[in-house]
Write a structure and sequence with these properties.
It contains no helices and 7 strands. It is mostly beta strands.
């Protein structure tokens, strides 16, 4: 069995607070989910299914410097509007290092959960694990 999940999120935001070295933003937008599952039952044949949907989302996102080189970053995103998924959440926390004013790197932990039930389709999943990212500011 092979299962692939694609998440694409587009948001716009507003800065709630900005102080020297720290900011907190509220953002809103949409998340696209796309799933593809393939199963091969040897002599019985194979099964292939694709399902896509989108959810409106709201999010708090923050960033705080803890020294000139190191920072903390994170977000808490939720969708409890019942539009497509019954409930969806996404949280992330990380520590970052600034190489210079243009490039930085982060390492942290992220968890994503979704409960989508529609016309016999059920996708009730929690995924979590370590993250690593590179940031380019322009």
């Amino acid at each position: 069995m092979t299962a692939k999940t694609l998440l694409a999120t587009g948001v716009g935001g507003y800065g709630l607070t900005y102080e020297e070295g720290a900011n907190l933003d509220v953002v809103a937008g949409a998340r696209l989910w796309s799933l593809n599952s393939e199963m091969d039952f040897s002599s019985l044949g194979s099964f292939d299914a694709t399902k896509s949907w989108d959810d409106p989302v709201v999010d708090l996102k923050g960033h705080a410097s803890i020294s000139p080189d190191f920072f903390l970053a994170g977000w808490a995103l939720v969708s409890d509007f019942g539009v497509s998924s019954k409930f969806m959440w996404d949280v992330m926390g990380s520590v970052g290092y600034n190489f210079n004013v243009t490039f930085s790197m982060t390492a942290g932990y992220r968890g994503v959960g979704v409960n989508c039930r529609n016309d016999g389709f059920v996708y009730d999943v929690i995924q979590s694990g370590p993250t690593m990212g590179f940031v380019f500011k322009f």
